[in-house]
Amino acid sequence: LTQDELKTLVGQAALAYVVPGEIVGVGTGSTVNKFIEALASMKDRIPGAVSSSVASTERLRALGIPVFDANEVGELAVYIDGADEIDGRGFMVKGGGAALTREKIVAAEARRFVCIADESKLVATLGAFPLPVEVIPMATQRVVRQFAALGGVARVRLKDGVPLVTDNGQHIVDVTGLSLTDPLAFESEVNQWPGVVTVGVFAHQKAQVCLLGTSGGVKTLKF
Ligand code: DER
């Protein structure tokens, strides 16, 4: 099976976790896009969705799925999202799609985080994937220096040759050279650096379930 086929497999499998009659939390990325396509088949059985990005909102609305503002709804039963990496405890690195801040907000609203990923995302230790961190532009160089002090190399993410601007109007640095052996402590530490909006470690907002697309089918991991 190709990676695209594995993403379709887990995107469809995630429908089983959507609670009829309840608004569903929806993440961002190519795997989530497969979930959104599958969700269209259930759109008459749910009131709609809360979205973690402009990109996902556009896709949901294009399929006739109403999108609510997070402030309009209370607790969500489930949040479905992808990951750049996920370890054996359900801790994740996210932000490859530049939506990490709103993803963490919507994830925090949900009782259960169901991660959908192809098998390439499952790792023993987080940190091989360049860690996304959303920063206030004024603080970028200070944050770069602080990561350098930890042995990390932080680079401002560019789009068409200029710094990418997130849905929140901020910048992103991607950090290589880190080995995240204590994701909970690392997330707490970096999140309070001046100028950091969100660090792309999802340990405090970890996944409880991971639907992993493998050549042998969908594996359900529980954390
Ligand atoms: O940006 C994100 O956090 C996405 O969920 C990303 O981590 C996964 O995107 P993909 O499904 O396109 O690999």
Count of helical regions: 6
Content of β-strand: 25-35%
> Distance N terminus to C terminus?
26 Å
Give the distinct bound molecules. Answer: D-4-phosphoerythronic acid
* Radius of gyration, whole Å: 17 Å
Binding site for substrate: 28-31, 81-84, 94-97, 121
Function: Catalyzes the reversible conversion of ribose-5-phosphate to ribulose 5-phosphate.
Catalytic activity: aldehydo-D-ribose 5-phosphate = D-ribulose 5-phosphate
Subunit structure: Homodimer.
Gist of the model:
The chain has six helices and 16 strands.
How is this fold's topology laid out?
Elements: H1 3-13, E1 24-26, H2 30-39, E2 49-51, H3 54-62, E3 67-68, E4 76-81, E5 85-86, E6 92-93, H4 100-109, E7 110-118, E8 131-135, H5 140-149, E9 153-156, E10 158-159, E11 162-163, E12 171-176, H6 183-191, E13 196-199, E14 201-202, E15 209-214, E16 217-222
Parallel strand pairs: 1-2, 1-4, 2-3, 4-7, 7-15
Antiparallel strand pairs: 5-6, 6-14, 8-12, 8-13, 9-12, 10-11, 15-16
Bound molecules: D-4-phosphoerythronic acid.
Description:
26% of the residues lie in helices and 29% in strands. It is built from six helices and 16 strands. Strand 10 and strand 11 (162-163) form a beta hairpin. Helix 1 (3-13) crosses helix 2. Bound molecules: D-4-phosphoerythronic acid.
List keywords for this structure.
single chain, 223 residues, alpha/beta, seven-stranded mixed sheet, binds D-4-phosphoerythronic acid
